[in-house]
Structures are given as C-alpha cells and as structure tokens.
Backbone:
C-alpha cells in the first residue's frame, strides 16, 4: 500500500525519465528538464534550472474511519521564457504560459503512466501563475490521489 | 565663459565615475562584445521584489550607446541583467548617463502554494 514517500518516488521517477518531457524541453530550451523532490525555500531555483518540475507533498488523510486514503501532492511546472510571437490572427502571444501548460500536460501524462492500478488520480486542480515573477512562469497542479484501505493493511499509512 | 554644463562634463569622469569615488569598474556585455566601463549601481535603489534583487545602474552614454534588454553588467563577479524598460518609455537618458533598471538573483517561488 502506497504511503507518501512511495508516491513521491513513483511520481518523481516517472517525471525524470519521461522521454516526451525531455524531448519537449530540448526543443524549446536546448536542455532536458530538471525534477526536484521538494525544494530549499532559502535558496530557490532560478532561471538556470528551468524548465523545472518541483514535486512536494501537501497532505494526507488516513485513519480507521476512512475506507479510502487520500494523499495531496503538488507538481509545479516552471519555465523561464520571455519570448513573444504574433499569431496569424494578429494576436501578440507571450509564450511562457503556453509553454508551462504544454509542460504540465506532459507531466500529467507521465504521472498517470507511473501510478500503479490501485492508486486513483481522483482530482487535478491547476493554477496558472504567469505574472508575479515573469519571465519565471509556473503552472501548478494539485493532485489528489486515493487508494482503498484494504482489510489487514495499515489504515494509517 | 564656462557654463555649469561644462563643469558637469568634467566632473562626470573626475568625480562621479571616478572609481576611487562613486563608481566601480565593470564589464557591459550586449551578447556579442564586452565593454569595460565605470558604473554606479545605486545601493539606495536595491530592493528585493519579483523574487529577485533590482537596482538602477548608471552607465555613461559615452561608453554604451544603445543599452538593451537582457544585456548584462558584471561587477566583481556579480552579474546584473538589464531589465525590461517600463511602459515602452525607453531607457532614461539625460544626455550623459543612462539609468538602467537591472535585476539579478531571480528565484522561482510559485511552487509554494
């Protein structure tokens, strides 16, 4: 039965080894993506570490009163990009948010393919953060992962 | 007859950009070439925002004719990047000195939610 550390292992390993993510990062940023499990808030990553995915545990909900355990994990996809383009329709597009979303889509696919069958991705909430630290732009997923508590297994982990 | 403006021109190098007075030596790079300059990075304007450190760099127009976004100024191994001009106004220049917004040490903090 998966505990939070097992989930972090599954998710970070899947993200780090994902060929589609690596290819995407190489196309747009000439280097593979980086994956962090948690981060040092005293020395946060900068532009040189991007494109970057940071995976952090948020919460878990377990116990004898729960038939289903839930774990909440954040997956932040961060790019450093100030490029802009003009579309055929004449729209001026600052691409960083779009690149962040592309990265997020690939990251979600990598997460899903790495989960075992007994772990359900119950909910994915996504926040777009394109402005405050531009050109560092983040797209952050909050994943709710659930797993049935089976008889005989530890209901607390 | 000497005018105040003439005195300022003299003082620009002798006083303000004298590296024994207010300025420091640095290297200005536009990506294709490096220029040795004297520069004043205004400590009073150094502040932490946009998850980085911003300041104003005063660079002589005689040294750098056309400053640009993402050019760099390196002083004592620390590299500042020329930031975007605000509201399309162009970088400020009084005819003698550019006032360039610069930034360094940007950090991603959005992962903390």
Residues:
């Amino acid at each position: 039965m998966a505990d939070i550390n097992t989930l972090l292992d599954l998710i970070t390993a899947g993200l780090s080894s994902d060929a589609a993510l690596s290819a995407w990062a190489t196309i747009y940023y000439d280097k593979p993506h980086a994956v962090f499990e948690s981060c040092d808030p005293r020395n946060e990553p900068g532009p040189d570490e991007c494109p970057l995915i940071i995976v952090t545990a948020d919460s878990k909900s377990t116990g004898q009163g729960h038939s289903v355990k839930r774990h909440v994990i954040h997956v932040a996809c961060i790019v450093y990009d100030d490029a802009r383009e003009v579309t055929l329709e004449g729209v001026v597009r600052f691409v960083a948010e779009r690149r962040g979303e592309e990265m997020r889509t690939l990251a979600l696919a990598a997460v899903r393919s790495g989960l075992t069958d007994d772990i359900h991705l119950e909910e994915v909430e996504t926040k777009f953060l394109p402005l405050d630290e531009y050109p560092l732009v983040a797209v952050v997923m909050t994943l709710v992962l659930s797993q049935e508590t089976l008889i005989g297994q530890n209901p607390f982990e | 007859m000497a005018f105040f403006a003439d005195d300022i021109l003299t003082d620009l190098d002798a006083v303000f950009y004298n590296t024994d007075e207010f300025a420091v030596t640095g290297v200005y790079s536009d990506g294709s070439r490096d220029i040795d300059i004297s520069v004043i990075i205004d400590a009073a304007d150094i502040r932490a925002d946009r998850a980085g450190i911003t300041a104003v760099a005063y660079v002589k127009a005689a040294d750098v004719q056309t400053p640009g976004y993402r050019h760099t100024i390196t002083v004592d191994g620390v590299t500042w990047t020329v930031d975007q001009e605000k509201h399309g106004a162009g970088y400020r220049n009084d005819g003698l000195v550019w006032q360039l917004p610069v930034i360094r040490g940007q950090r991603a903090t959005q992962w903390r939610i």
Notes: Chain B is about 10% helix and 40% strand. The first helix of chain B runs from residue 4 to 16. Chain B has a mean pLDDT of 82.
